[in-house]
Amino acid sequence: MQQASGHTLKAFDEDIERLRALISQMGGLAEHAIGEAMRCLIQRDTEGAARIVLDDKKLDALEIETERRAVQLIALRAPMAGDLRDVVAALKISGVVERIGDYAKNIAKRVPLLENAAKIEPISLLPEMARIATEMVHDVLDAFIERDAQAAVRVCERDQAVDDFYDSIFRTLLTHMMENPHNIGQSAHLLFVAKNLERVGDHATNIAEMVYYAATGQHMADRPGKSATAP
Amino acid sequence: MQQASGHTLKAFDEDIERLRALISQMGGLAEHAIGEAMRCLIQRDTEGAARIVLDDKKLDALEIETERRAVQLIALRAPMAGDLRDVVAALKISGVVERIGDYAKNIAKRVPLLENAAKIEPISLLPEMARIATEMVHDVLDAFIERDAQAAVRVCERDQAVDDFYDSIFRTLLTHMMENPHNIGQSAHLLFVAKNLERVGDHATNIAEMVYYAATGQHMADRPGKSATAP
């Protein structure tokens, strides 16, 4: 905190806590949406999938609310240095969490197109891949709440596991496509589901970079565990 | 402009012009990268593709520079209302343009994997799809520079053409995969190239929404031409 006045300090703290709470709320919704999308995919629950698509509007509304409050906070409280970095991070992180929700929505939209997917073997790997990716999202948002730069670095280190899942699923799906050309449409949709989950992991590392910068004022260059993005 | 002082006004104007110039520069690099990625894909120019991947670092650096200047501008000039919306839009738009550059990089990374792709018919459709998507990016950044909300709405209306290209290429590639199972890996990579270009169009419409909000203070709800995102 830069302000000397106790009153201003308290007002800023309350405002930034409210921003952090909004980000937590968004993170909870995004994690739930990814988990639900996996459940609907495995159980072929098209009604549940339709609800995920509808519920995504809540994330959009919370992103707008976060931006409105962050901009108001900057305008009214004129935070400096670390406080300002925190507010800017909240603004940017809410945008990334909203995009993570979009991936859940995209997966949910494929559920009705995947009525025969249970027969395609790598589908059994997707929920575990999703679990790791959503855990990364959960932990990186905790790191933001705690302003814990080292926890953010540890989240990045786990992205390799998600990328490895993706590479394995990609190869298995191509083999499945060659052996089952009648099922190629289903396999193509599963390829995109796997890609969406891989992107969730990437977005968790993007948030980790924002958390690191907000907490330290330094960019997380050459962070440990940084891997080239799979094409 | 909210400030009464001519001196403050001039300083803010110079700062925001510098931000706009940075966004333009980023947009130019991103457009060039997409166009080059298409050229390398068609001409199987793996060296050119490697340069695109390297050049993406320029966009990353410009995004950091834009954020640094935007945050400094907010801290030093305390802009209000429309000016503040403009600065926040610049901050967010630079992040989206950086992601558009990432799509070019992702396409470029697939070039060495696509040595036989010239035989796959829909590859001839990709450059035209890329042209429409990059024109959208170009025009929406012009709309930001000009603070032209209506131009932003017109950009959104063109996203349907990109989505239609994607649907057509998706179907054609699936047919090609069924008929040429030995070529399935190449086709799968082209599916992702098409998806990346479809996402460039989506990102142009995301920027359009930011431009609209910055210029009007209203969210572009139920904008004309808004289409459900293809799964």
TrEMBL record, chains A, B:
The keyword Cytoplasm applies. Residues 23-111, 127-211 form the PhoU domain. Keywords: Cytoplasm, Phosphate transport, Transport. The keyword Cytoplasm applies. InterPro entries: PhoU (IPR028366), PhoU-like_sf (IPR038078), PhoU_dom (IPR026022). It is found in: Cytoplasm. Pfam families: PhoU (PF01895). It comes from the Bacteria. Gene3D superfamilies: Phosphate transport system protein phou homolog 2, domain 2. PANTHER family: PHOSPHATE-SPECIFIC TRANSPORT SYSTEM ACCESSORY PROTEIN PHOU. NCBIfam families: phoU_full (TIGR02135). Homodimer. Belongs to the PhoU family. Plays a role in the regulation of phosphate uptake. This is Phosphate-specific transport system accessory protein PhoU. It comes from Sphingomonas limnosediminicola. The lineage of its organism: Bacteria, Pseudomonadati, Pseudomonadota, Alphaproteobacteria, Sphingomonadales. The gene is phoU.
